[in-house]
Amino acid sequence: MSKIGIFRCQGNEKKCPLTNCLLSLQERKQGFARYDQPELYGIFSLQEDFEENVNLANIMKSKGVEVIHIATCAFSKKAEGKNWELGGGYYNNVDSIAEKIAKETGLPCVKGTAHLPEGYEVECFG
Ligand code: SF4
């Protein structure tokens, strides 16, 4: 079993209830294809403040989270049709955030959850 924590985006808190993130986790596909038994252990919203993200990630860790995922919409956007493309997401420094979370918590931090952009190889920090 892999205990998963998800960071979502503040920018779409009132637009998306994480439906595809949760379905992808449940169905072990997209960003969660690597796990045999992924289990959702917590969700927080990414903050602009780096240190605050580390604090939240540490809370997830204290609750038992083993791997942290950052929602796909943090670093990509919906293109024409149904496809998503890299860039244009809600945050422009997701790599730095993921790197910092991984370094400070000791947990792997993975970029991506649902509807991964075409050609994107899931990146894992830590
Ligand atoms: S990645 Fe997709 S499903 Fe998940 S929160 Fe963002 S827009 Fe919603």
Could you please describe the fold and organization of this structure?
With 126 residues, this protein is α/β, with parallel strands linked by helices. It has one domain (2-125): Rossmann fold, CATH 3.40.50. The protein is built from three helices and seven strands. It has helices at 19-26, 50-62, 94-105; strands at residues 2-8, 38-45, 67-70, 76-78, 84-86, 109-111, 123-125. The strands form two sheets. A five-stranded mixed β-sheet has the order 2-1-3-6-7, sandwiched between helices. Helix 2 (50-62) packs across helix 3 (94-105). The longest helix has 13 residues, at 50-62. Residues 8, 12, 16, 18-21, 71-73, 113-115 line the site of iron/sulfur cluster.
In the predicted model, the low-confidence regions spanning at least 5 consecutive residues are none
The overall strand count is: 7
Question: What's the main sheet like?
Answer: 5 strands, mixed
Tell me, what is the CATH class?
Alpha Beta
Multimeric state: single chain
Secondary-structure element string: EHEHEEEHEE
Strand order of the largest sheet: 2-1-3-6-7
Estimated radius of gyration: 13 Å
The averaged pLDDT comes out at 96
Between the first and last Cα atoms, what is the distance in angstroms?
A: 19 Å
